[in-house]
Amino acid sequence: MDLSQYHGLIFDMDGTLIDSMPAHLQAWRAACEQSCIPFDPKWLMSLGGSPTVKTAQMMNEKYQLQHSVQEVADTKWQFFEALEHKGEVIPATFSLLMRYRGEKKIAVGTGCRKSNALELLSMTDILPSLDALVTADDVRNHKPHPDTFLEAAQRIGLVPSQCVVFEDTSLGRQAALAAGMDCFLVVDGKIKEFTSASSLE
């Protein structure tokens, strides 16, 4: 993989750098059961990168419910925080990050809220290697809007064309391309499909 043209690497976190999606689904299952909300793991996986409150809002819309979205989101996070095992690093992306640490600027752009992102990134020893971290708390418009990745590029002092994004969901890829950044899709822990932002112009 030739990354010589890029000065910055921006990684999504859940499902891209850390295999935390099973833990998130486990927490969502418990929260859904508690609130009598249908649990659809495949649909929830497709929303990877979306903040928890936004996902709770989409559940209300999908199932025509009137739950307090903040209450549902808080319940999900309580279950998540209670889990002992929240996920290990994904070797393909983690080794890439470590390989270019110090040589290129490294950032994480996640739909996770800051407190939980800091916990996961500290637990996996990724945090000390980052030049910037952008979370759901740092932007108003979340993925598939480009704001998360644009903010990450700004914080590492680069323009979008100098950055490449690693994502595991189509939602995240949309955000990267909307930001004018090339994107690699991570599928089942492997870095696979590449999409160039310039091919969309």
Protein traits:
single chain; alpha/beta; globular; 201 residues
Notes on the structure:
- The chain has helices at 21-35, 41-46, 52-63, 69-82, 91-100, 114-123, 147-155, 170-178, and strands at 8-11, 105-109, 132-134, 163-167, 182-187, 190-195.
- By secondary structure, it is of the alpha/beta class.
Q: What's this, in brief?
A:
The protein has 201 residues and is an alpha/beta fold. It contains 8 helices and 6 strands. Strands 3-2-1-4-5-6 form a 6-stranded mixed β-sheet, with helices on both faces.
> What Rg, in angstroms, do the CA atoms define?
16 Å
* Strands in their spatial order, largest beta sheet: 3-2-1-4-5-6
Helical run tally: 8
Percent of residues in helical segments? 40-55%
Please provide the count of β strands: 6
Amino-to-carboxy terminus distance: 24 Å
Task: Categorize the overall geometry.
Answer: globular
What letter string, H or E per element, gives the SSE order?
Answer: EHHHHHEHEHEHEE
Q: Are there runs of 5+ residues with pLDDT below 50, and where?
A: none
Q: Characterize the largest beta sheet: strand count, sense, and whether it forms a barrel.
A: 6 strands, mixed
Q: Helix/strand/pairing class, anyone?
A: alpha/beta
Average pLDDT score: 94
